[in-house]
Design brief:
Radius of gyration: 19 Å
Structural class: alpha/beta
Distance between the termini: 33 Å
Number of strands: 10
Strand order of the largest sheet: 9-8-7-6-5-4-3-10
Largest sheet: 8 strands, parallel
Shape: globular
Helix content: 25-40%
Number of helices: 11
Order of helices and strands: EEEHEHEHEHEHEHEHHHEHH
């Protein structure tokens, strides 16, 4: 599989990374801890990804209430796999709504928990999961700087922040001589193009990597949801619909029908075309996918083999205009 360097770091990432947010839960939602993929199913996905050349797994301390990290740690130890590990800090591992944020004390405590569950002394990639509006960014960056100097973390990044917040963090790092964010991880797909307005231009100017998640728009882009039909049991729109509720519109269904036809014309699955569109952006280092089954992973792995020209990118985007 093709690899690309993550920003100005020395890390070379496969163009597709395995997102482990459904291992033992559905993301960080406490009410869904224990759902999602079982450990057996998670192991099958990790085996398939590793065998296909995927070289980084993306997780978070809070995914599945710690189950995701624990299962990755056990799998990695048994397979003696060199796969790169990327994890995140912000939300509570125990589902405690009051235990969140990016204060120095929390980051240190949460990182120690992540290292223990993953069974390592160092994580290759460490992300802030959300911006913390109650903790000064200087405090967060000083802590991350110290942890990187100590060798506990490698590259540091930020997830779910906007361009203004990214600019502010980079300026703070420059002012105080602190380690700066090496890359950004935000949602990006044909239905969520916000990063193009503010985050991606900053990444281009500052030489930052970009590893978007959610390339399928919560399943919308593969045609999982149909007009005037109930949502499939166990789908995101039945378990955690809030992030995608705004997509249930006439315009979305029209765009998806056109997009499915475009995929059929190319002889590929809609998932493959949707991920290929994300990967075709010049600032995208790698895409994080969250398949539920190995066959879904196969559709993602085909995406890097489907290059799209700038004109083709624009044509596909216009389907949802």
């Amino acid at each position: 599989m093709e690899h690309r360097r993550l920003g100005r770091t020395g890390l070379e990432l496969s163009r597709v990374g395995l997102g482990c947010g459904n291992f033992g839960g559905i993301g960080s939602a406490p009410e869904l801890f224990g759902q999602g993929e079982s450990e057996t199913e998670a192991r099958a996905l990790m085996d398939a990804a590793s065998e296909a050349g995927v070289n980084f797994f993306d997780t978070a301390a809070s995914y599945g209430g710690g189950r995701s990290e624990s299962w990755i740690g056990r799998w990695r130890a048994e397979r003696d796999s060199p796969v790169l590990l990327s994890t995140k800090v912000y939300w509570s591992v125990h589902g405690d709504a009051t235990d969140r944020g990016l204060s120095s004390e929390r980051i240190r405590r949460e990182l120690d928990g992540s290292l223990s569950r993953l069974g390592v002394n160092r994580v290759d990639m460490y992300l802030t999961h959300e911006p913390d509006l109650e903790t000064p960014i200087e405090e967060t960056l000083r802590t991350l700087d110290e942890l990187r100097r100590s060798g506990k973390v490698g590259a540091i990044g930020a997830s779910n922040l906007d361009g203004e917040q990214l600019e502010g963090a980079l300026e703070t790092s420059s002012r105080y001589g602190l380690a700066r964010f090496d890359w950004v991880q935000n949602e990006y797909n044909l239905l969520r193009r916000g990063p193009e307005r503010d985050v991606l231009p900053v990444c281009a100017r500052e030489g930052l990597g970009f590893t978007p998640f959610g390339p399928l728009g919560g399943g919308w882009l593969v045609g999982k949801y149909r007009k005037d039909e109930p949502y499939p049991p166990g789908s995101r729109m039945t378990l955690r619909p809030e992030p995608y509720a705004d997509l249930a519109s006439e315009a979305t269904f029209r765009g998806i029908a056109r997009f499915q036809a475009a995929a059929a014309d190319r002889g590929v699955e809609p998932a493959t075309l949707a991920i290929a569109w994300v990967l075709s952006h010049p600032q995208v280092t790698a895409v994080v996918v969250g398949p539920r089954r190995p066959e879904q992973l196969a559709h993602a792995l085909a995406a890097p083999e489907l290059p799209l020209s700038p004109d083709e990118r624009d044509e596909l985007a216009a389907l949802f205009a």
